[in-house]
């Protein structure tokens, strides 16, 4: 395999140039859309476009867009691009506001400019990455790797890289803590790791593949690689561990490996709260006539209150009173509360329709406005059942790392009511690990598109 070690600087330079041209091109296209012609373009617009394009290079570098994305999940790159344009847009609007020059620029043009620039940046990468993959598959722009570790961990890495050649990494050397398994791995350069003999490795990178429990061994390997000038990476064997939003954090100069963390922090927390308040407020406004009719129907057809309150568990294990339209007779739980068994509960005539249509959940919009719940998230469970399920279902408590929701990823896939609880938890944890504003919007659209009515709703 050929290795072109000097390719990366050129690709990064090309990416910067492409982004610069995308911002400039977006500004020119936006001007043409807004004013119909680029002839006699006003000079202040030209200076604004050029200044923002130069500023964009700084912002893009700051948010980490120009780091290597070889073999990485590209959705994270898209999120960083969106973040970069949000920052760039905020700086532009702040400048216009504080310099009191906002009335000298068309707001419509500004909107066109930012949207078109974003589309161009994403489009260039959408076209470039498949091309880079084909280049790597043809044997160019590849990196050689030496793996050091135990047989199980190294075999996992080797199998993954062999399966996905487009990552551009080739394992050419293997140093095992126990070389007796070399014959089963199928690599020519495989032997026991010797700190003296392997102090100098002739590969582009070295990956140390060992579990966390062998930290002292990792330390000794790093010591033996003190004179190695390539990239050294530690890939801990975490097969079987449930990781959520894992990443590396730095606090007071200390490095922390985020094993299981909530996605709701910083900007994400603000976006989620804004999403909930805006959409829940609009929903309450438009659905209030229906809610009034439902409340009147409950009151006229059965004795008891309109609302039913249940203690449920949400973010960080905190309990709250979740609201529903009452669908059961007032004394239906006189003999105690039990999980499931919806068909055996005493439901009123109106309540049966409300449950089947999920309209009994509408008062939870009030919980969303209060901050007890979110529009989208794992469905909350009663605290008494949480105490039971957390000992029976692996990862059950991790679903409480975000606010509970009215609807969620599990619900739009049919896992609701008296369905398999383990499958619901798997969907909830997938949602937490992959949360984004766009995923929330997708779930809300699927909830409306597929309808509230569901055979498992009770």
Describe this structure in words.
The chain has 458 residues and is α/β, with parallel strands linked by helices. It has three domains: 7-137, no CATH class; 143-239, 3-Layer(aba) Sandwich (Rossmann fold), CATH 3.40.50.720; 267-449, no CATH class. It contains 14 helices and eleven strands. The strands form four sheets. It has a five-stranded parallel beta sheet with strand order 3-2-1-4-5, with helices on both faces. Strands 6-7 form a two-stranded antiparallel sheet. The longest helix is centred in the middle third of the chain and has 35 residues, at 267-301. 25% of the residues are buried. The model is unreliable at 1-7 (pLDDT under 50).
Anisotropy-based shape: flat
Q: From the helix content, strand content and strand pairing, which structural class follows? A: alpha/beta
Main pleated sheet: 5 strands, parallel
- Please give the alpha-carbon distance between the first and last residues: 60 Å
Strand order of the largest sheet: 3-2-1-4-5
Low-confidence stretches: 1-7
Tell me, rounded to a whole number, the average pLDDT. Answer: 81
Amount of beta strand: 5-15%
Number of β-strand runs: 11
Number of helices: 14
Counted up, domains total 3
Q: Radius of gyration from the CA trace?
A: 28 Å
Give the ordered list of helices and strands: HHHHEHEHEEHEEEHEEHHEHEHHH
Percent range for helical residues?
40-55%
């Amino acid at each position: 395999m050929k290795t072109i070690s000097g390719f990366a600087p050129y690709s990064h330079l090309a990416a910067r140039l492409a982004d610069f041209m995308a911002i400039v091109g977006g500004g020119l296209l936006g001007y043409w859309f807004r004013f119909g012609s680029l002839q006699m373009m006003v000079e202040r617009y030209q200076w604004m476009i050029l200044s923002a394009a130069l500023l964009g290079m700084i912002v893009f570098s700051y948010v980490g867009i120009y780091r290597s994305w070889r073999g990485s999940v590209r959705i994270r790159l898209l999120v960083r691009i969106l973040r970069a344009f949000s920052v760039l847009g905020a700086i532009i609007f702040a400048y216009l506001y504080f310099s009191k020059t906002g009335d000298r620029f068309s707001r419509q043009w500004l909107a066109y400019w930012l949207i078109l620039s974003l589309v161009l940046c994403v489009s260039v990468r959408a076209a470039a990455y498949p091309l880079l993959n084909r280049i790597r598959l043809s044997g160019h722009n590849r990196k050689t790797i030496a793996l050091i570790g135990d047989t199980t961990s190294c075999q996992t890495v080797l199998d993954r890289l062999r399966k996905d050649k487009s990552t551009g990494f080739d394992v050419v050397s293997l140093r095992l803590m126990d070389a007796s398994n070399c014959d089963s791995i199928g690599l020519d350069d495989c032997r026991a790791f010797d700190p003296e003999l392997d102090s100098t490795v002739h590969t582009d990178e070295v990956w140390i593949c060992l579990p966390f429990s062998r930290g002292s061994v990792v330390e000794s390997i790093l010591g033996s690689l003190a004179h190695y000038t390539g990239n050294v990476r530690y890939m801990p064997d975490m097969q079987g561990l449930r990781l959520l939003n894992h990443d590396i954090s730095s606090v007071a100069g200390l490095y922390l490996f985020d094993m299981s963390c909530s996605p709701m922090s910083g900007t994400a927390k603000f976006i989620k709260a804004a999403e909930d308040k805006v959409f829940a407020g609009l929903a309450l406004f438009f659905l209030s006539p229906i809610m009034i009719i439902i409340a009147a129907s409950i009151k006229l057809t059965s004795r008891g209150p309109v609302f039913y309150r249940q203690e449920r568990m949400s973010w960080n294990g905190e309990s709250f009173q979740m609201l529903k339209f009452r669908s059961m007779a007032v004394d239906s739980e006189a003999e105690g509360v039990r999980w499931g068994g919806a068909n055996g509960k005493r439901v009123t005539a109106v309540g049966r329709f409300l449950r089947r249509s999920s309209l009994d959940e509408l008062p939870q919009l009030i919980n969303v406005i209060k901050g007890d719940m979110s529009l989208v998230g794992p469905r909350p469970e009663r605290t008494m059942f949480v105490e039971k399920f957390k000992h029976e279902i692996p990862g059950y408590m991790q679903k409480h790392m975000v606010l509970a929701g009215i609807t969620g990823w599990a619900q739009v896939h049919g896992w609701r009511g008296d369905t398999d609880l383990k499958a619901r938890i798997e969907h909830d944890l997938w949602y937490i690990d992959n949360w984004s504003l766009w995923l929330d919007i997708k779930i809300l659209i699927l909830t409306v598109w597929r309808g509230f009515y569901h055979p498992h709703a009770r």
